[in-house]
Write a structure and sequence with these properties.
Radius of gyration: 40 Å
Shape: elongated
Helix content: 10-25%
Distance between the termini: 133 Å
Oligomer: single chain
Largest sheet: none
Order of helices and strands: HH
Number of helices: 2
Length: 201
């Protein structure tokens, strides 16, 4: 029984070989066909490639981080701070004493400097996008051809129709004071003062 089992294992091993060298050309039927030959003499590939240190398995075992849900019973939103979502108090507030605003950067709100500064040396303005403030190329650009200014509203700068316009009819200037341009606001204020002076007389 042991001889038959050993012979069977030899035949199985020879089936794994791509090239049996001097034994190529005839079939192996028994141990008598292998005089003085050890099983280590067969030039076979590694039958256990997974145990070889040269084989590196792909690292597919990493799993994405699991986000916890809000600790409030019945809430299905993700927790943001202290186990709560933003709706149930999971917010980081400004580190300045007495400030009720939400912290944006470095533990402070935007009013108290909680914004990333512009990457341009010497610029103290807040970063908008691409590491720069709006004056140095950050933020959304105007959609008008060859215009490098920042977009104010509707995708355009003030010079190309963006921003609020003066409420006075047929005035195309942008509003600066009380929804009016500087000129019409001045005329409006002067007219009101004249009317008040006439009423006082």
């Amino acid at each position: 029984m042991e001889t038959r089992a050993f012979s069977t294992s030899v035949m199985n091993m020879t089936s794994l070989c791509d090239d049996v060298g001097p034994f190529d050309g005839y079939a192996l039927t028994s141990l008598d066909d292998l005089p003085g030959i050890s099983m280590l003499d067969f030039p076979c590939e590694d039958p256990f490639p997974l145990l070889n240190s040269s084989h590196v398995l792909p690292n597919n075992t990493r799993r994405p981080p699991i986000r916890k849900l809000c600790a409030k019973q019945g809430c299905v939103k993700f927790a943001r701070c202290q186990g709560m979502c933003t709706q149930h108090g999971g917010r980081r507030y400004c580190g300045i004493h007495g400030c009720p605003r939400v912290a944006q950067f470095a533990g402070k709100c935007t009013t108290h400097g909680g914004t990333k500064p512009c990457d341009v040396p010497g610029c103290l303005k807040s970063m908008q996008s691409r590491g720069k403030c709006k004056a140095h190329g950050g933020g959304v650009r105007c959609q008008a051809p060859d215009c490098a200014k920042g977009s104010i509203s509707n995708g355009f700068c003030r010079g190309h129709g963006g921003g609020l316009r003066c409420v006075v009819t047929r005035c195309t200037k942008w509003a600066q004071r009380e929804r009016m341009c500087v000129r019409h606001h001045h005329d409006y204020s002067t007219a009101d003062n004249s009317a008040v002076q006439m009423m006082q007389m």
